[in-house]
Structure formats: C-alpha cells, structure tokens
Amino acid sequence: MPLRDRLSTARGTFTGFLASVVSRGVDDATWEELEEALILADAGVSTTTALLDRLKEQAKAGRVNDAEALVALLKAQMAEDLGGHDLELVTDGSPAVWLFVGVNGVGKTTTIGKLASREVQNGRRVVLAAGDTFRAAAVEQLGQWADRSGAELVRGAEGADPSSVIFDAIEHASAAGVPLVMADTAGRLHNRANLMEELAKIHRVAGKGPGTVTEVLLVIDASTGQNGLAQARRFTESAELTGVALTKLDGSAKGGIVMAVQDELGIPVKLVGLGEGIEDLVEFDADEFVDALFA
Ligand SMILES: Nc1nc2c(ncn2[C@@H]2O[C@H](COP(=O)(O)OP(=O)(O)OP(=O)(O)O)[C@@H](O)[C@H]2O)c(=O)[nH]1
Ligand SMILES: [Mg+2]
Questions:
Q1: Distance from the CA of 160 to the center of ligand 2, in angstroms?
Q2: Is 294 domain-assigned?
C-alpha cells in the first residue's frame, strides 16, 4: 500500500487550508492560515517561520499570483526541504552495527524486527543483540522478532551490562561471518543523565570490538509531536545520531514533526513506521510524504 494511503491523520493535514485558500485567493489572511496549519501539524514555530519567509520571498518575486500557484510552491518547497538526504543505512563493516535508541515505548524493538526481516529477505544474515537487559520480557520480545524475521538472537544474563551484551553479539557475529548486528537498547528518558551516559558508553564499547557502528537510529513516536523534537535534541548530545526512524505515523500523528526534526536537527528521517506488522516499515520518501499531507 502506498505511503499516502497509510498516513491516516497526517494525510489531509493541509486539506482545511487548501479548501479555504482555493475559495478565496491569496491575501494576508492566507499567510496567517498557512502559519497556523503548519504549527498545528507539529512543524514547530522556527521551521514554520523559516518556510514561510522563503515562500513570501518567492511570492514577492511575483511567482505567486493565485492560490494554485501558492500551493504548488508550498509543496515544492516542502519536498525540497525534506528531500536530498542520503537515506541509505550503511552496511560497511565486519560486522556493521546499527544501534537503536529512544524513549520508552516508541517502537525500537518493533522497528528492529521489521528491519531485520527486510534485511534477511534481501539475503543478509543478521544478529539481533538484546541490549535491553532491563526487563526479561524485552529479551523475549526481541527473540520473537528474531524468529519471525529469520535473524539470530544474542542475549546476556538478566540484568547484565547492556554494553557487554552488545559487545558479545558483535564478536559472535564477526566470528560467524554475519555482516550486520542490530542492537536493541532499553527505553530511557532523555532527561535522565545517568541513562544518557550509559548510551554514550554503549556507543563507545560497541566500536571497540571487530565491528563498526555505522548507524545510530533514534526512534521517535510521531504522535508525541513537538516533544519528540525535545527528545531528539537530548539524544544528539549523547549519541552521534545518523538518522531517525519515525514510528506510528499511521496513528494520530499529523506529520509536521518530520519537518521539525530534519530542519532543526539536520538529522534525516530515514524510516517510517506505519503499523505493528512486520511489513509496516518504509523508507522515507519526501515527495510521496508531501503529496500525502495534501491529499
Ligand atoms: N501503530 C503502530 N504501532 C507501532 C509502530 N511501531 C511500534 N508500534 C507499537 O508500539 C508499541 C511499543 O513498541 P516497542 O517496539 O515495544 O517499543 P520500544 O521502544 O521497544 O519500547 P521499550 O523497549 O519499552 O522502550 C507496540 O505495541 C508496537 O506494536 C507503528 O509504526 N505503528
Ligand atoms: Mg523495546
């Protein structure tokens, strides 16, 4: 199913704005309505202001005469702002190590399961490292995803140091010739300094063995709106993030958070979660995404 059909709430985020601008034409109130629509869609104040400034400049240059032209320009500008990033997940390294981090319940473990399935289907062997040693159930959950996806699970003793479990998984993968390790980590609140320090340690230790950490993916629940941005800001301080996996965009999310994350943090949204199933993960596509918002 295409992205646009799966974005239930995000889809049509701007239809209200569209209806009013088409019936009335472009005037001062139009700009105000557009600003409001963007902020309501979770794009954030600073991203919205920057986008509007650029649009107004273009309008001044005479490129916006009617509502249709404004909408076309808006869509083109949004797609340009959101696109152009390299979304490939880097697999160089023997093995390559992908770390998944984020606050509690955002979808880290589920995203790992979906991605492992995709990689295994592409013919790549995958080891899942059960770095969430906080709860026994977390290891079991990852184990189920390993079974469903055809990946191998490496787990440690309950309550073990997550860094050492992930390190062991990397050594195991290396010895077995498995090219890719995906490491799960426990959910952590971004304002808990000790937990954020632990994350920095995981990153450090994971790079000490035979593998190379090529991706650190922050998982954000899209329905948390602007709070997701605050989370992202804190996580960038403790781990060198390479991308964002934005989950639950099939739910009540309005989608503008994608713009805020990329614009304010410069971290590309690489993956989008669109449901709880194993197939419900797509690579982010800026054009398709913008189309969906206006559909
Ligand atoms: N609708 C929807 N649900 C999702 C998506 N991704 C994950 N979920 C659900 O969100 C809930 C939490 O997912 P987990 O993968 O356990 O989240 P987590 O970040 O690993 O959670 P902790 O390990 O407890 O921090 C589960 O019920 C998932 O099925 C998504 O893209 N869409
Ligand atoms: Mg988890």
A1: 16
A2: no
**Domains held by the chain: number:** 2
Task: Report yes or no on 248 lying in a domain.
Answer: no
Please state, in angstroms and as integers, the Cα–Cα distance from residue 225 to each residue in 255, 259, 281, 285, following that order. 8, 11, 20, 20
C-alpha to C-alpha distance for 117 and 132, rounded to whole angstroms: 20
The model's pLDDT over 235-266, given as tens digits with 9 standing for 90+, comes to 988 888 999 999 998 877 778 888 988 888 88
pTM of the full structure: 0.93
Residues near ligand 1 with C-beta < 6 Å? 102, 104-110, 132, 138, 187, 219, 247-248, 250-251, 273-276, 280
Q: DSSP H helical segments within the chain, as ranges?
A: 3-6, 15-24, 28-40, 45-58, 67-82, 108-121, 136-149, 162-176, 193-206, 226-238, 257-265, 286-293
Q: Within this chain, do residues 152 and 18 fall inside the same structural domain, yes or no?
A: no
Atom of ligand 1 nearest to the CA of 251: 1
Q: Using alpha carbons only, give the angle 209, 173, 232 rounded to the nearest 5 degrees.
A: 65
What are the beta bridge partners of residue 101?
Answer: 218
Interval 135-150: pLDDT, tens: 889 999 999 999 999 9
What is the residue whose two structure tokens read 């952590």? 188
**Ion ligand 2 neighbours, Cβ < 5 Å:** 108-109
Find all residues with CB under 8 Å of 143, minimum gap 6, and list them: 130, 153, 155
254 in a structural domain? no
Q: In whole angstroms, what is the distance from residue 107 CA to residue 150 CA?
A: 19
